[in-house]
Structure prediction request, 190 residues.
Amino acid sequence: MTTTNNRTSILQAMDSTDANENKFLSFFLGNEEYCVEILRVREIIGIIDITPLPQTPDYVKGVVNLRGKIIPVIELRLKFGLEPKPFTEETCIVVVEIAGSDDEEQFQMGVIVDNVSEVIDIPRSAIEPAPHFGSTLDTSYINGMGKAKEKVLILLDIDRVMTLSEASDMTAAASHADGEQPQDISAKAA
Prediction:
């Protein structure tokens, strides 16, 4: 059960560790536990007011104003094709930093998850490549499978959860919502 106290202890663990390269933030979507590199996580917040954006896919929830900065928010459950679920007290927005098209331009994105679990240390020796399911199933967003505490965790490549065109559309929409000129990061990839 994730409460404000649990989120606070997770954030303290993120700040207090010197060697974060093998550390991952674990979170749940339904019964599945996923992880993202702790170095990509900027903060964890409860659900706040989300301003919807017109003509976006159902997993794009909109934008939030986080201390004066407008960031796009997606619901990972819907992005992965899972059934919608009402938000609860445990539902969180994990603010992650996403690499842009040229690996220098980065932006923040909020990812709604069912609940955060803990910061886990997974040595590189305990990570295996993502399984291959043939050419019909895209698993490019999976960095690998981590083994920790007698369970298998799905390690996400947060940069690949969104395609380049989706990320470009979201940053443009967030910039437009913030009153900035929309930036097209896909043009830099060409």
Notes: The longest helix spans residues 164-177. Helices lie at 4-16, 76-79, 158-161, 164-177, 185-189.
